[in-house]
Amino acid sequence: MIEIRAVSKSFETGKNVTQALSGVDLMIEKGSFHGLLGVNGAGKTTLIKIICGLLSLDSGQVRINGIDITKNPKAVRRILGFCNPDNMGLYLRLNAEENLKFFSSLYGVSPRVAYRRINALLGFFGLEKSRKKLVKDFSTGMKAKLRLAKALIHNPDVLLLDEPTSGIDYFSAQDIYILLKGINEELGTTILYTSHHLKEIEELCQKVSIIHKGKILLEGSISELNRQIRKTEVVKIKLKGDSVHFKKQIRPLPYILDIQEEITNSDNSDDIVSFKLLVPDASSAISQIIEKFGKEELVGIWPEECGLEDVLKITMGWGDLCAS
Ligand SMILES: Nc1ncnc2c1ncn2[C@@H]1O[C@H](COP(=O)(O)OP(=O)(O)OP(=O)(O)O)[C@@H](O)[C@H]1O
Ligand SMILES: [Mg+2]
Q1: Which residue's alpha carbon is nearest to atom 18 within ligand 1?
Q2: Residue 231 carries which DSSP code?
Q3: pLDDT tens, 39-75?
Q4: What number is the average pLDDT over the span 171-193?
Q5: Which CATH number is 2-227's, of 3.40.50.2000, 3.40.50.261, 3.10.25.10, 3.40.50.300?
Q6: Coiled-coil annotation: which residues (predicted)?
Q7: How far is ligand 1, taken at its centre, from the CA of residue 58, in Å?
Q8: Which of 47, 50, 114, 179 has the smallest number of Cβ neighbours within 10 A?
Q9: Ligand 1 within 6 A of 266 CB?
Q10: What is the Cα–Cα distance from 122 to 129, expressed in whole angstroms?
């Protein structure tokens, strides 16, 4: 279980102060697979680095399985595995095997068990032939795999994974999803996971928190998030003609909350443009759009489910409104 209470953190660089986290409260239940979602600079990495002790907090409290991270960092280290997208935590001048040996002894794993786990993890990640290669000579994806292996080496109770599949190829990523799901379901490992691949979050996470400008704005399962923003629906339209002209006509309509042009390669005709509209009520928006555009222009219109990307966009819009 991860308990985060009123955590704030700012960075001072010269005369500039960045408030990276402002009073973050987050409760992650034991055995939960929890996604942390937010745009660049939202505060995800700062929060994860605080939880794993790589950064100090300005105020607030973090407890992992009941242990306060500032009072007993050693005890926390043994039950926590983490991987960050920068290479913090990997020794570039050691080879892969030496890195894993070093971390297994740091985490108190016996040499016999460590030997077995190192072989299993290097095998799983397809790194057995590179076990003697210096990490500085690894490719981006190989380093990402080794960071994950390092995070898993001591079978931690809690895993903090910050963009773990960044740089990892599609096929290996699929294997990693299966591995992480298995670890979560069978061993009951608590996982906090960040990613910019929303499909990955949808596929893996039971709960999601949305962080924006250092504050948690919304939290819940994906269906709960959808319900919380249920006043918004999605309508897709296809029109024949010039996209700039259509955007100018659609944007000011009173029932349109947002309009996004979609890039599709399924239309043979060059002058067909597709838009996704966020609206308060799909059926009334559809009838009003049908009234506005004639048959010559309107090629298709249909309602769609709100996806996680819509939830993220709408929530960030609320956050900006509240802050202004
Ligand atoms: N060491 C630092 N010094 C100064 N500012 C920092 C430092 N680390 C982070 N920040 C700032 O804190 C804010 C949050 O950054 P953070 O890295 O936590 O974002 P993030 O959500 O992980 O973004 P991304 O999706 O790009 O990884 C940003 O404004 C960033 O510039
Ligand atoms: Mg980050």
Answers
A1: 43
A2: T
A3: 899 999 999 999 988 899 999 999 999 999 999 988 8
A4: 93
A5: 3.40.50.300
A6: none
A7: 15
A8: 179
A9: no
A10: 9
pLDDT (tens digit, 9 = 90+) per residue, 298-317? Answer: 888 988 877 777 777 777 76
For strands 16-28 and 158-162, give the pairing: unpaired
42 CB near ligand 1 (under 6 Å): yes
65-115 pLDDT per residue, tens:
999 999 998 888 889 999 888 766 789 999 999 999 999 998 889 999 999
CATH of domain 233-305: 3.30.70.260
Report DSSP letters for 8-77, one per residue. EEEEEETTEEEEEEEEEEEEE-TT-EEEEE--TTSSHHHHHHHHTTSS--SEEEEEETTEETTT-HHHHH
Residue 8 to residues 4, 47, 68, 136, Cα–Cα distance (Å): 10, 9, 16, 34
